Please model this.
Amino acid sequence: MTIEMLLGAGVLAATLRLATPILFAALGGVITERSGVTNIALEGCMLVGAFFGVFVADKTGSLGVAIAAGVLAGIVLAALHAVAAVTFRADQIVTGMALNILALGLTSYLDYEAYATTGTPSTIPLVPDFVVPGLSQVPFVSDVIGRQNTLVWAAIIATVVLQLYLFRTIPGLRLRAVGEHPRAADTVGVNVYTTRYLAVLASGALAALGGVYLSLGAVGSFSDNMTGGRGFIGLAAMIFGRWTPIGALVASLIFGYGDALSVSLQGVTIGDLRVPVQLLSTIPYVLTILAVAGFVGRSRMPAADGQPYESEGH
Amino acid sequence: MTVASQTSPTGPVAAPSVRQPTAQWAQGPLVPLVSVGVALVLGAVFVLISGNDPIAAYSALVKGAFGSPYDITETLINAIPLTLAGLSVAVAFRTGLFNIGAQGQLLVGAVAAGAVGARFADLPGVLLLPMTLLAGILGGAAYGAIAGWLKATRGVNEVITTIMQNYTIVFVMHWLLQNGPMTAPNAFGTPASAPIGAGAVLPIIVPDTLVPLSRLHAGLVLAILAVVVFWFLLWRTALGYELRAVGLGPRAAAQAGIEPKRRMVVVMAIAGGFAGLAGMIQVSGVFHRVYDGFSAGFGFDAIAVALLGKNSPIGIALAGLLFGAFARGGAIMQSNANISSHLVEIVEAIVLFVIAAETLIRAIAKRRGTPAEAL
Model:
């Protein structure tokens, strides 16, 4: 084992790449749960984003339309969740599970119909890398952040914007009020239903952007179930990051670093023992359980999170 | 993340008698039947839109699931783990807990059973089979109990814990089976454990003269026994009475001297035990070793099985059979009618979605909600 394997520019660059889809899902989780709606369908939103991004890129040849279509697919799936959870007050975990299964079935079915024998085409337009100007001469730093995908930067910018929105603006304050005490927010004239609808739709859009990054940014193709649980790691990052965007960023980077290590330490031995790299991938889940249990810091969810709201005078 | 079943935000809860009739299914099979009907129709519309023939799709599916005695035995093989995992989810629902973790508990049960079955491979069946069975049940139970314990002592929502546990065991299995202590040197290219001993294998219960080459194993008997145990436990024992009382109203139960916290650990262990048994049966009855990436999805389908079966023993068995038929028929549909087997997942998702929305609509109509009904 060398320091290069632990902290080399390659590992750090990979950390950023691997953290990005997690971060998008986590940001989606933050905005919806801060409004009081649990959305475990983020995994599904990501998956439809990944598929429809590729599918529309193939059909239209336009990257802009493809990204929009992927995001729209995530919004549509999230809208189903919003109708069930906010309007019909259905159990949010059950509908979330249903939508995850639906997304998996739908994308795999359509993938089979469209690309069963050929695989997704290699000629589709992809999200380009962003070359940071003036960095090319700086050693190490340029290898880490000099040439990352544009959506990596988009995720970081979205983090800052969402942090400022939630904690430095009036609409953000109202959104948090709806998630903490919907009755009180309702009393002072905040529309609980509208706020929650918009938050759920936004969560679908953000998660879908994570999916678009996976298919059109990182990999360049679609394969069945390619999100592989990243939406759920996003939920973990949201919880570990204490329901704040900046916290979610830090958590995503930690989880992404674990992933990057499990690649760079593949086959490495310490003495006679092979490093059990697969166990590194359990870090997000174990840390999250410990965080929620209060063994690592204290993670408190919004007070009205997951509870349906019914206004009085119904 | 809070499960809506814990308290009813809509107002005072009119809790019905804890002595519910055993066969809730008989009381109201309407909702499950309607949801399956709606899902099949929407599935057909979807097949049509995507340019295929829905009648061809469904007839291939039915023929694949029930077309011959062999197909029926294959359907049953799929129904076994689905029913058991469904019992796992349902026993937790009955106590007001949401066990998303049947998948993870199933995998732990499979790993434990596979480890014992391979480690003591030389023992005779009279010893080895019970040991393997016990390992599977205890493995799943221990994993489930963690979620119950964290809920009882630290107030951690079991939904979060069980989701995280599902993924944790997947990566632990990658390690165990790819370059860990259970890895077998050669397993046809797929990472897997060493095979279990002959004594740990569940025997085939259909004679070759009746259904040639049938793989249907004695796990069917275990699954039927488990359904009976589920019924007996919940409706014929003091513990079951307490568990259901906690599910119907934790505060009322506490007033009556039933401490909800301790019951949470117990019920999650029982739930894990059912799922662990499902995993053990897959190892001892079907694969005879543990594969990496094994039984993906049974534990998630189990949520649909439990809800469709209205958490009742007969209902779960019937729903398990239906989803078993979907799994078998879907695979045959893909190879014979060239329509993706993922159609089955779409139908399943719609079933779940309709059930979730329907019970709530009905609950609103009646202006009351109880945990047993809200879920």
